[in-house]
Amino acid sequence: MFSPHPNLADEVNRSIIQSEIEGGVFLNDLPPSTVLEIQTLHHCYKAVLLGGSEAMLSGHPEFCPEPVQVAISGSTWGGSMLKLQFVGRGMHLEFRHPEYPMPIVTSPIQEIRDNVPLPPMELGPCAHGAHS
């Protein structure tokens, strides 16, 4: 259980508590080859974890239409504060793509599913609906 930190602003403490309520997953708690389906407000991503913060990510028509190896930094509440190696509902996923100098930040995460079965050799868009 989180206890508010006296040196953090009330808004920061509220955001940390909200992330505990909404739920999420720390990447370090998951074994390599775990498959996460991350549904954001606009896209559905598939992340095949490789270990640490590394993952093969797909699901965005511009940044990763095909699986690409990225470093998942963690999740943010839309500002500069990052919850490291955490994928959390209601938060924005932040990852580093090898072809872009700046981190990529998604729209808010709506749902996270783990160990989503994949057909052999497919890491494409999520099967649960269209991208919006």
Description:
- By secondary structure, the protein is mainly beta.
- The chain has a domain at 24-114.
- Helices cover 10% and strands 40% of the residues.
- The chain is built from one helix and nine strands.
- It has one helix at 10-22, and strands spanning 24-26, 35-40, 44-51, 54-58, 68-76, 82-84, 86-88, 92-96, 104-114.
- The longest helix is centred in the N-terminal third of the chain and has 13 residues, at 10-22.
- It is globular and about 45 Å long.
- The model has no long low-confidence stretch (mean pLDDT 83).
Descriptive terms for the model:
10% helix, mainly beta, single chain, two-stranded antiparallel ribbon, globular
Q: Helices, strands, pairings?
A:
Elements: H1 10-22, E1 24-26, E2 35-40, E3 44-51, E4 54-58, E5 68-76, E6 82-84, E7 86-88, E8 92-96, E9 104-114
Antiparallel strand pairs: 1-7, 2-3, 2-9, 3-4, 4-5, 5-6, 5-8, 8-9
Question: N-to-C SSE series?
Answer: HEEEEEEEEE
Rg from C-alpha positions?
15 Å
Mean pLDDT metric: 83
Low-confidence stretches: none
Helix count from the secondary structure assignment: 1
* Helix-residue proportion: under 10%
- The portion of residues forming beta strands comes to 35-45%
Q: What is the CA-CA span between the terminal residues?
A: 35 Å
Number of strands: 9
Strand arrangement within the widest β-sheet reads 2-3-4-5-8-9
User: Which structural category do the helix and sheet elements fall into?
Assistant: mainly beta
Shape: globular
Give the biggest sheet.
6 strands, antiparallel, barrel
